Fold this protein.
Amino acid sequence: MLRSDTVTDDRVYLSAARQAALIRIKQLSPVEMMRAYLERIDRLDGRLRAYITVTRETALAAAREAEHAVMAGGPLGPLHGVAFAVKDQFATRGVRTTAGSRLLADNVPGEDATVVARLIAAGGILLGKLNLTEFALGGTIHYPFGQPRNPWNTEHDTGGSSAGSGAAVAAALCAVSLGEDTGGSVRSPASWCGVAGHRPTWGLVSRHGCIPLAWSLDAPGPLGRTVEDCALVLQVIAGHDPHDALTTRRPTPDYRAALTGDIRGLRVGVISELTTGPETDPEMRDGVLAATRVLADLGARVDDVSLPLIPRAGAAFMAICDSEGAARHLQTLRTRAGEYDEGTRRRLLAAALLPAGLVQKAQQARALIRAQIVEALRRHDVLVAPTSPRPAPTIANYTAPITSTAQAVTHFFTRRSFPTPASLAGVPAMAVPCGFSSRGLPLSLQILGRRFDDATVLRVGDAYERTTEWHRRRPEWGA
C-alpha cells in the first residue's frame, strides 16, 4: 500500500493541484487523505453543517481503487485521488440530491450531472453533497439539513447559495468543491469564507443534471483554496455537452497554462460605484484598493471606471431570477406550499405576482447594464470591485425580520448589486481573498472579464494570489 507521512492539517490544507501532483509521484496516499477528511467531517461538521450527505463508504472504496491505479502505473487523470464535494443541487447517481429542500429529501437520481461525471472521469473522488439555501434561491430562514456556519466565526453566515461549498473548502473538509452561481452563489460564499471561487462564462459549463433556479443565469463553478484549483476544475468541467444545447462549441483553452504570474500591460478598471460608493464597508474598500495597488505594482495599468447603472443590478436581477424561479415552482407551490421554508415560499410567491411590465423593465435594465459592462471591457482587460459590500454578517442579523422599506432595499437589492452584474452580463467573474477585517473576517476582490475570456480572469487572480499570503491563512476554529 502507498504510504505518506501521517496526514496532518498541513496536508489536508494543501491545494487540490498540489495533492494531485503528490499522489501522482506516490508521495501522498488517496486512502489516508480520504480518512483524514472524513475524520475532520466527523469532528467539525456537526457545528459547521457544510454537508447534507457524506458518501463515506463509496469514497473510501474509490480511494482504494485510486491508490491501486497509482501503484499499478495506470493512466491517471488530472484530479486522480483528490476528494471533491458538490453542492446538493447536482444530480449524483444513487446518492440523494435534495437541493436543500424537504420536498426532495428522498430524491435519488439515476445518473450523475455532467459536471459530476466529468470530475469522476478525471480521477476525482466524490466525498459528499454540500448544504445550500433551499433550491439555491437564497434567503432560507430554517435550513432543513442544518444551519451552515462560517469557519472563521461560527456565529457568522457563510454566504449563499453554495453555503456548504464555501465552508467545506475553507475548513478543509474536502480538497475542492463545486457550486452553482446564479447571482453570486459561488462568489459570495467564496468571499465570506475566504477562498477562491469562479463563475464561468454563461454557457461554458454544462447544466445538465443541475436542478435549475433561473435558466438564463445559472452557471456551475468551482471553489478552491487557490486560483489554480479553480482553473484545474474548470479545465475538467468546461466545454460542450450534447445534453445541454446552450453550452458553447468553442475549444476549451488550457486554463492552467494561462497562470503565468505575468500581468504586465493588462488594463484593469476599478468599478468606482462598487469600490468607493457609500454602500461599501470601509474595510472592504481599503482591502480592494490595496489589492489594486498590488496589481499596479505587478505591471498592470489600473484606472477607475464608472458604470452608472451598476447600483440597479440587484433589483433587476431579483425581478428576473425570482420570476424565472417562480415559474418553475408554480405547480408545486399550489400543491405543497407548506413544505417550503418560509423565506423561500414568501420570495417565490411574491415573484409569481410581479406584473409582466415590471419584469420587462428588468430585462431592459439587464440589457443596459450588460452594454455598460461590455463597453468597459472594450477598454479594459478586466474590471475589479469588491465581491461583497461587507464581510460576512452574523447569522442572527442576516435572518432578522425586516421592518422598513429602506432595510428591505439594502437587504435584497444593494448587496446583490455587487455580484449580480457579471451574472446579468453573462461574463466570467471570480472572487479572491484580499485581506481580513478587524474582526478577523475575510475580505474579497472580485475580477470580471470578457465573455469566454475566463483565462484572463484566472490569470489576474493567480498573479495577485502569488504576491500575497491571504489564501494561506486558516480559520483558527477547528484548525
Remarks:
- Residues 1-5 have pLDDT under 50 and may be disordered.
- The first strand starts at residue 51 and ends at 54.
- The CA atoms of residues 126 and 174 lie 9 Å apart.
- Residues 9-472 form a domain with the Amidase signature (AS) enzymes fold (CATH 3.90.1300.10).
